[in-house]
Amino acid sequence: MDFGVFPLARFMRHGSIPEVTRLKLGDFNADGLSDVAISRLRVEDLSEPSIKSTFYIYLNKGGTFPDRPSEEINLDGIVEEPLIADFDGDGRDDIAVQRLPFGFWQVVRIKVFGSVDLLYEIYYSSASGTHSRKPDVTRSANFAFDLKHQSLSLLAGFSLYSDFDGDGRLDLLQSADKGSYAVLLSRDGEWASGRMTVEAPSSFLTFTEDLNGDQKDDVVIRYAGQGEMDSTLRVLLTPGAEKK
Ligand SMILES: [Ca+2]
Ligand SMILES: [Ca+2]
Ligand SMILES: [Ca+2]
Ligand SMILES: [Ca+2]
To answer: Which among 161, 156, 158 is positioned nearest to 191, based on CA atoms?
Structure first.
């Protein structure tokens, strides 16, 4: 199968992206061998733009890959790249996508309330490394912004790849509005089900890392193009366990 490469010259010439492919590795069947996920985003019809995203999964057969994909996952709309990690903690890597759903109500929301719902869809991997046609879990986190003050902070900073309570399960962090983040902790076997708010000016440039070695990820926020906060760095340490 020929996926080609993303031709920058073609992009410059046509002013559009006819096709974008990306390759990610993950172990979907937990056999210790990395499998391959190739995502392809393409505009089907330029006169009436319809954007389709497809993920092709190639399972690693002892160091070789089949000629044809082991499976295909088709999605409508812009899903540029799959986000891969073990979201349900069963040892098998799963596939997540972040989407900006477009539709009438979403446009009303943006115009009237200055907010959008960012959608996270998770496809859990089965024991054989395959996925269901529809997402197993969907989470929506609202992001509100100030239309008058356009800046980098308009774009939601998020992380799917962090464990804030140190239980070994991945949690979700996402900008909620200009002044806060939403932290969605994984609880009772459910990914990103608990929700709390952390008051801190949000930024697109949000990173997570365990900075003090307590096995809980902390948050580093860099502010750029945000007025008086410009060129500052803020570190939020995750609170420690209560002392008895
Ligand atoms: Ca594998
Ligand atoms: Ca999993
Ligand atoms: Ca966790
Ligand atoms: Ca920490």
So the answer is: 161
DSSP 70: S
What is the spatial distance between Cα 159 and Cα 174, in angstroms, rounded to a whole number?
Answer: 7
68 near 1, Cβ under 8 Å?
yes
Measured in Å, residue 10 CA sits from the centre of ligand 4 at 45
Q: Ligand 4: distance of its center to the CA of 240 in Å?
A: 8
pLDDT in tens, 110-167: 777 778 888 899 999 999 999 999 999 999 888 887 666 554 445 678 899 999 999 9
Distance 137 CA to ligand 3 centre (A): 17
pTM for the predicted model, two decimal places: 0.81
Give the number of whichever ligand sits closest to the CA of residue 85.
2
* Distance from residue 26's CA to the centre of ligand 1 (Å): 7
CB 227 within 8 A of CB 154: no
Q: Find the ligand nearest to 34 CA.
A: 1
**Ion ligand 1 — residues with CB < 5 Å:** 27, 29, 31, 33, 35, 60
Provide the 3-class DSSP secondary structure of residue 12: helix
Q: How far apart are CA 169 and CA 29, in angstroms?
A: 18
Q: 26 near 37, Cβ under 8 Å? A: yes
Secondary structure percentages of the chain, helix, strand, coil, to 5? 10, 40, 50
Is 140:118 a contact under the CB 8 Å cutoff? yes
